[in-house]
Amino acid sequence: EAQVTQNPRYLITVTGKKLTVTCSQNMNHEYMSWYRQDPGLGLRQIYYSMNVEVTDKGDVPEGYKVSRKEKRNFPLILESPSPNQTSLYFCASSSLVQTGTKNIQYFGAGTRLSVL
Amino acid sequence: KQEVTQIPAALSVPEGENLVLNCSFTDSAIYNLQWFRQDPGKGLTSLLLIQSSQREQTSGRLNASLDKSSGRSTLYIAASQPGDSATYLCAVIKAAGNKLTFGGGTRVLVKP
Fold this sequence. Notes:
Chain A is mainly β. Chain A contains no helices and eleven strands. Chain B has strands spanning 4-7, 10-14, 19-25, 30-38, 44-51, 56-59, 62-67, 72-77, 86-94, 100-102, 106-111. Chain A binds chain B through residues 31, 33, 42-43, 45, 48, 50, 58, 88, 90, 92, 94, 96-98, 102-110, 112, and chain B through 31-32, 34, 36, 41-46, 49, 51, 89, 91, 93, 95, 97-100, 102-105.
């Protein structure tokens, strides 16, 4: 079954305590990305990756880091979380548009993060 | 910069009525358009994907149309049911890239 798996699903932490949200996909997709969803602001892209070791900033990258050491994994790292990073986070994966495929986007179930 | 708008932001209908959800985008150079469903606090489920060369896609009670030249897509849900209550999001991928740009969503309530 095609899946994007995020962990943890819920996380409460305190300001400044480093955390990592993991994301894994089983579809051999090249493209992976992270979004945050906030009321009134919708879904905004944080970072994306077009392949192993290829990552780039999205619309709201400040305060976040990512890595893509393996094709299936794309963790999101908050080195020093702050309260304004309290949000609902989604990981997504798809094939590349350049491959000419349908490019259906698959999303994880989400991680609800609260930074106190 | 691509902008995607969904109007109305919220919609309430009695059970059995047909739903019409609108999505507009400013840049017609898109690769595809995708409709998603999101239940409260949950992830996004892909409903329909329309390639830029297509005019419509159908799946069961769902039908999505695309008019690329006017920058519009419409999602029709026939004979609505209370289980259709959710937020519906449209998103486009531009022709030269892989990034999804989302609309703000339409929150739908179907009353029994």
